[in-house]
Design brief:
With about 450 residues, the protein is α/β, with parallel strands linked by helices. It has three domains: about 5-135, 3-Layer(aba) Sandwich (Rossmann fold); about 135-380, Alpha-Beta Horseshoe (pyruvate-formate lyase- activating enzyme), CATH 3.80.30; about 390-444, Nucleic acid-binding proteins (OB fold (Dihydrolipoamide Acetyltransferase, E2P)). About 35% of the residues lie in helices and about 20% in strands. The protein is globular. It starts with 5 loop residues before the first strand and ends with a strand.
């Protein structure tokens, strides 16, 4: 009897890509393929790619070049690429990566299995970056043998905001939301399999359901969805990423504290504290409005954790503009942030603008903001010392020595000694020490 072919997927980029990769692997598993975590043992090596920044594309292309170099005229490994970079670069990837078997765009995530099988059967090179909006209503496969108690659930795809620096509308298409009942059904199935926490995904997740009916009390479709998920028995925690300030309205703010399963953590991208730069970025809000949202959230739940995204060195950004970002950053007291140096991307509006902030100045501003973040993150984490936190045990820690990793409701990584029998459980952990990025404690 012929052994099943082994499949390995390398994922670059955001949680949406991680979710797409799990869907692809689950489809292979259901079809009789074997999943492996060792790419050198794999017969099929796939790379799920990110295109938001040039550095992410270069990493993926380098990895693909390394994989295809191992083929040396042999039938295996099959090497394929899917995701945002595939949608962005298309057939040019065949020119840049020798021996590549297929390129599948973001619309083809549900078809990666069939594309791979065609490559195996025919030996042809396949390019498919065509658009089929209906396919993303069916991205709901999960690996059944993955014991992680936390799962990502994609509730929408695409983006219609057209921020000037962002390539996502090009690579992911226009905003498309799944029906509420489909999402609820998927989460119910996950909970039946032991999942305790779900994280809802969307490029502008709180814009979910635009065009769907508003609730009788004025609740948006997204808040209606949160309420239905909150009612699912044995589901313990709900999170979501990434929201947009323009859709963070009162009904969503009021959900914190009233929906007991909605965790007190928000990742809310600010991008800049300068109104002038926000207008150039086509971000339809002012810095004062963003600060008001943060203040309302912390007024609603004083222990609220808020993280953000910042871009430094956007075209024409002055020191005065950057100082306004620093002021907002401190005022909102972000306890975690992703700080990026602006890089122009083709097919975006800002690509036509002069990239006139020097790399040296971008790095300077990046480091100054990271220094502030260091102090704010450390202070926030140290506030948990000598408190007892509910932690969901997710996996053994890479540091070994009997240590395990879990997260608090405020999404803080927490390390503690435990056993495999504790995986998937909620434990009370007394926090004894803190670093900039994590907590350490003891089960009590």
């Amino acid at each position: 009897m012929q052994k099943p072919l082994k499949v390995f997927v390398r994922t670059y980029g955001c949680q949406m890509n991680e979710r797409d990769s799990e869907h692809v692997l689950a489809a292979f598993k259901e079809d009789g393929f074997e999943i492996t975590v060792d790419e050198y043992q794999a017969d099929i090596v796939l790379v799920n790619t990110c295109s938001v920044r040039e550095n992410a594309e270069m990493k993926a292309i380098g990895k693909l070049g390394y994989i295809t170099a191992r083929k040396r005229g042999k039938k295996f490994p099959i090497a394929g690429v899917f995701g945002c970079m595939s949608q962005n670069l298309g057939k040019n990837l065949f020119k840049r990566v020798k021996n590549l078997d297929f390129v599948a765009g973001t619309w083809q995530t549900s078809n990666v299995l069939e594309i791979t099988k065609r490559c195996i059967e025919t030996g042809e090179r396949i390019l498919d970056i065509s658009e089929h909006p209906e396919t993303h209503n069916h991205i709901n496969k999960h690996l059944r043998d993955n014991a992680n108690p936390v799962k990502y659930v994609s509730i929408m795809q695409g983006c219609s905001m057209n921020c000037s620096y962002c390539i996502v509308p090009h690579t992911r298409g226009k905003e498309r939301s799944r029906p509420i009942e489909d999402v609820v059904f998927e989460v119910e199935n996950l909970v039946e399999r032991g999942v305790k926490e779900v994280c809802l995904l969307g490029q502008v997740v709180n814009a979910y359901g635009r065009g769907m009916p508003i609730g009788k009390d004025g609740a948006s479709p997204f808040v209606q969805l949160l309420r239905k998920l909150n009612d699912i028995e044995n589901l313990k925690r709900i999170r979501f990423i990434s929201p947009h300030p323009s859709f963070f309205r009162k009904d969503l703010i009021d959900s914190y504290g009233s929906l007991e399963k909605l965790c007190e953590y928000v990742h809310l991208p600010m991008q800049s504290g300068s109104d002038r730069i926000l207008r150039l970025m086509r971000r339809p809000y002012f810095a004062d409005k963003f600060i008001e949202i943060c203040e309302s959230l912390k007024s609603r739940v004083p222990s609220m954790s808020i993280s953000t995204d910042i871009i430094v060195g956007y075209p024409s950004e002055t020191e005065e503009d950057f100082q306004k970002t620093i002021d907002c950053f401190k005022h909102c007291n972000f306890d975690m942030a992703y700080v990026f140096k602006y890089s122009p991307r083709k097919l975006t509006l800002s690509y036509e603008e002069p990239d006139d902030v020097s790399e040296e100045e971008k790095e300077n501003r990046n480091q100054r903001l990271l220094s502030i973040l260091h102090d704010q993150s450390l202070a926030f984490n140290e506030s948990f010392i000598n408190t007892t936190q509910e932690v969901l045990v997710e996996e053994p820690a890479k540091r070994g020595n009997g240590m395990y990793l879990g997260r608090t409701r405020a999404h803080r990584k927490t390390f503690f000694k435990a056993t495999d029998s504790d995986l998937g459980k909620f434990l009370n952990v007394k926090i004894q020490s803190a670093s900039v990025s994590s907590l350490t404690g003891t089960i009590v």
